[in-house]
Design a protein that fits this description.
about 375 residues, alpha/beta, 4-stranded mixed beta sheet, 8 helices, 15 strands, globular
Length: about 375
């Protein structure tokens, strides 16, 4: 209990007295019933198979879960059978919006599920002809593992000798192709195909697949008692010391920091922030979507150190007000710690949520801002 209470207090980084108990009762009305059930939300970094949030099956297709030590707040939640491929879906068979709950006291929430995604649910390939695979098993020496690497090349790449700015992004499964994005894709390639045609401003995008169960530690530079040793420093070193040199040597790129950016969402937003702070001479800008700062309070120390080192890079933040009230507070806290001369955009969206659909809608705004610089 003490361990769990500590987790929740760290989660909110505000005055937290671990006051309230919540109880979920979910009735499964799907044709093909759940065999197990988990809650995933902004309270556990959207982990789809977190055993601390696993339901117990009761009679009459009911599932129950009781959680303690929740602070007064608004939260987002979805139910899964242990992966994003098996997340609950909406009545029309598509992705359902995040469920919203507000906790002001000990509360019981009643929900009904009507269907589940399947591991073998058919999905279409949607990536454009400008998307290519650098490697299905690109070696990451800093982590001693392999990873799939994607690259988007501008439509005029083959017919020009031009050099291009490069944007490095995380969670590549969700960037380009519906087939690999069980929870929806960003449509980065479609956005760039359209924007580059209209503006004649072109760029390369390099995407790195996340490591599934390794995602939480790879995108966190700090150790946590709940999830173990953080590998974010090694992952960032991989981007800078291994992947970027490979891309620069094999593609026509503008190598300087002014033309190199990094972007990602949630934990990807956290590691993008860390990357630009650690390597400001490599990444001149960063796109930080819905950053999961709650898991890494030690990041604030790195921001303060950057302030003393005359950090002057460009940052673009996005946060949705439906992501939980600490999202805005955490971003404001980081923003206020940054040097005053940093060129910074902080976009707040009243109805914004923590999902690929929201990030897909916002990405063109970030890209337009970045490429104009």
């Amino acid at each position: 209990m003490r361990k769990y209470c500590l987790f929740v207090c760290l989660l909110f980084s505000v005055k937290c007295f671990c006051q309230y108990k919540i109880h979920f009762i979910v009735t499964d009305n799907a044709m093909y019933k759940a065999t197990k059930m988990f809650a995933a939300g902004n309270f556990n970094s959207w982990q789809p198979a977190d055993k601390n949030y696993q339901f117990t099956k009761k009679e009459n297709n009911n599932w129950e879960l009781t959680l303690s030590n929740f602070a007064k707040a608004a939260y987002s939640v979805k139910f899964t059978q242990g992966s994003w491929q098996t997340v609950e879906y909406a009545i029309n068979g598509g992705d359902r919006e995040n469920r919203q709950i507000t906790i002001n006291s000990d509360t019981t929430f009643y929900f009904t599920t009507i269907g589940w995604g399947m591991e073998d649910k058919p999905r279409n390939h949607t990536s454009s002809k400008n998307v290519h695979i650098i490697s299905d098993s690109f070696f990451m020496p800093q982590l001693n593992r392999k990873r799939k690497i994607w690259i988007y090349l501008p439509s005029n790449y083959a017919n020009s000798k031009e050099k291009y700015p490069v944007l490095y992004m995380h969670d590549a499964q969700n960037l380009f192709d519906e087939f690999t994005a069980p929870y929806g894709e960003w449509g980065v390639d479609e956005a760039l195909d359209s924007l580059q045609k209209r503006t004649s401003k072109y760029a390369i995008v390099v995407g790195v697949d996340h490591g599934d169960a390794k995602r939480l530690v790879e995108y966190n530079p700090y150790d946590t008692k709940e999830y173990g040793k953080g590998e974010g420093e090694a992952y960032t070193d991989f981007l800078v010391q291994t992947l970027k040199p490979y891309v620069d040597n094999n593609y026509r790129t503008k190598k300087d920091a002014a033309h190199t950016s990094v972007a990602g969402s949630s934990l990807g937003g956290l590691i993008s922030t860390y990357a630009i702070l650690k390597y400001p001479n490599i990444f001149g800008s960063a796109g930080i979507f819905s950053p999961a700062y709650w898991i890494a309070p030690a990041l604030q120390k790195l921001v303060k150190q950057a302030n003393k080192k005359h950090f002057a890079n460009k940052l673009w933040f996005y946060g949705g007000e439906k992501e939980g009230y600490t999202m805005m507070e955490d971003m404001e806290r980081i923003k206020n710690l940054l040097p005053k001369n940093v060129e910074l955009v902080l976009l707040k969206v009243k109805d914004g949520e923590h999902n690929e659909k929201a990030w897909r809608n916002i990405f063109p705004l970030f890209y337009t801002w970045w490429i104009a610089k």
